């Protein structure tokens, strides 16, 4: 059968290779790139090559494929469904290609695409969607189109709603510290597929404006000393919408399990029989100091960091924090929700042995356009916060790492 003329378009098709024999000739870098996708498809791979790259050898030693360390022989393509010919010998490639043609085995040739009966598309995957792009003789263009489509699917800018097998449930999505670019790609994709979004004030608010008009957005903002939606009401709303068959995203700031009451919501949903997925987020405890030029650990300065909630005063009976023990640590201390009580916290740390000269940085609206940083010491931090009129949300970093970084980021810096 003659090979189709190269100007004819290829006919796209998805091959189901699970359990079916695929023969790969050559164990170089081409095979190394192509093998993972074949193995992921469940193919029964038979690799024939005198030598292979270390990565390919590792696949063989792990039992992922069968390697025969020799050259090609006529008959090697018997019983194959698909063949990849990628040796560095044009004569061998031509002979194997001729055998494939006779045996009616679809064959890819790395050295001569026009002589092949099949072409390998530029492929990418995102949550069950496989994208395959062919642009004839321009593989770089294929890769560029593939990358654009896959990135759009992952970050939610290209929507591909599920119409079959879409199960209702709840996804607890950590939205990161506030900058919409810092949500995870999975979180953004789930947000794009949601029917209902129940959002906290500290989540990436700008992403809500990108949602389609049919998406119901429920404000679960917990503004300090202002109106608040009780946790029980949030739990009930999640359950109600999920039981109505909707796909619900609970959009939270930072990470759902870092002072976010995420486990309380998971427990309530589980008890109600609602499927729930937790998508981790970038915690403000690490990302906000980083955005302000502060590493929470640094070689020779701090080999540990501790994250503490400061929403309860140190001398309160309801405090679960061992402040005397924290005062004795040498590492970095990161305080969340502590702006209103920093005076009492600083005084307690000093009283139990932490130096009053310990550097402190307060970062308000971290990662956002309004970000600003105030530098102080444990002895002066309460006064500096009052002077600068710092308001929540803000992250407070205590320790020598504050003085390490000299880079500054966008936003006003107050000294």
Secondary-structure element pattern, one letter each: EHEHEEHEEEHEHEEHEHEHEHEHEEHEE
Helix content: 25-40%
Number of helices: 11
In angstroms, what separates the terminal alpha carbons?
79 Å
Largest sheet, if any? 6 strands, mixed
The pLDDT mean sits at 87
How would you write the strand order of the largest sheet?
13-14-17-15-16-18
Structural class designation: alpha/beta
Pick out the low-confidence regions: 407-412
* Coarse shape: elongated
Brief summary of the model shown:
With 415 residues, the protein is an alpha/beta fold.
How would you portray this structure in words?
- This protein is of the alpha/beta class.
- It contains eleven helices and 18 strands.
- The protein has helices at residues 29-40, 54-61, 90-103, 139-155, 185-192, 231-243, 262-271, 284-291, 323-327, 342-351, 381-388; strands at residues 21-27, 44-52, 66-68, 82-85, 106-109, 122-126, 129-133, 169-174, 196-199, 216-219, 247-252, 276-279, 305-309, 332-336, 359-364, 372-377, 394-398, 413-414.
- The strands form four sheets. The protein has a six-stranded mixed sheet with strand order 13-14-17-15-16-18, with helices on both faces.
- It is elongated and about 85 Å long.
- The N and C termini lie far apart (79 Å).
């Amino acid at each position: 059968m003659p090979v189709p003329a190269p100007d004819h378009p290829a006919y796209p098709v998805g091959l189901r290779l699970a359990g079916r024999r695929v023969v790969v000739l050559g164990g170089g870098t081409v095979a190394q790139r192509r093998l993972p996708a074949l193995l992921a498809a469940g193919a029964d791979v038979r690799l024939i090559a005198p030598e292979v790259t270390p990565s390919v050898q590792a696949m063989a030693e792990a039992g992922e494929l069968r390697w025969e360390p020799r050259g090609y022989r006529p008959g090697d393509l018997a019983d194959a469904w698909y063949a990849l010919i990628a040796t560095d010998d044009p004569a061998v490639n031509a002979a194997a290609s001729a055998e494939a043609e006779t045996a009616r085995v679809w064959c890819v040739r790395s050295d001569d695409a026009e002589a092949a009966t099949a072409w390998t598309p530029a492929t990418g995957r995102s949550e069950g969607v496989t994208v395959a792009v062919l642009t004839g003789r321009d593989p770089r263009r294929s890769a560029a189109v593939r990358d654009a489509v896959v990135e759009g699917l992952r970050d939610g800018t290209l929507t591909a709603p599920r119409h079959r097998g879409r199960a209702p449930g709840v996804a607890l999505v950590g939205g990161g510290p506030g900058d919409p670019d810092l949500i995870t790609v999975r979180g953004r994709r789930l947000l794009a597929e949601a029917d209902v979004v129940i959002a906290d004030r500290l989540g990436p608010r700008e992403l809500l404006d990108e949602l389609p008009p049919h998406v119901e957005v429920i404000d679960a903002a917990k503004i300090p000393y202002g109106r608040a939606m009780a946790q029980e009401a949030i739990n009930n709303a999640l359950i109600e919408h999920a039981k109505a068959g909707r796909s619900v995203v609970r959009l939270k700031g930072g990470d759902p399990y870092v002072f976010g009451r995420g486990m309380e919501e998971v427990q309530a949903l589980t008890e109600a029989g609602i499927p729930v997925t937790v998508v981790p987020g970038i915690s403000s405890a690490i990302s906000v100091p980083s955005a302000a030029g502060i590493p929470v650990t640094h070689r020779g300065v701090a080999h540990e960091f501790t994250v503490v909630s400061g929403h309860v005063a140190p001398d309160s009976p309801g405090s679960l924090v061992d402040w005397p023990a924290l005062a004795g640590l040498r590492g970095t201390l990161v305080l969340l929700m502590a702006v209103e009580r920093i005076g009492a916290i600083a005084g307690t740390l000093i009283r139990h042995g932490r130096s009053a000269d310990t550097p402190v940085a307060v970062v308000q609206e971290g990662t956002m356009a309004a970000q600003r940083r105030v530098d102080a010491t444990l002895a002066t931090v309460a006064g500096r916060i009052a002077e600068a009129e710092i308001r929540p949300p803000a992250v407070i970093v205590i320790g020598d790492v504050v003085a390490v970084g000299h880079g500054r980021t966008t936003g006003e810096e107050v000294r």
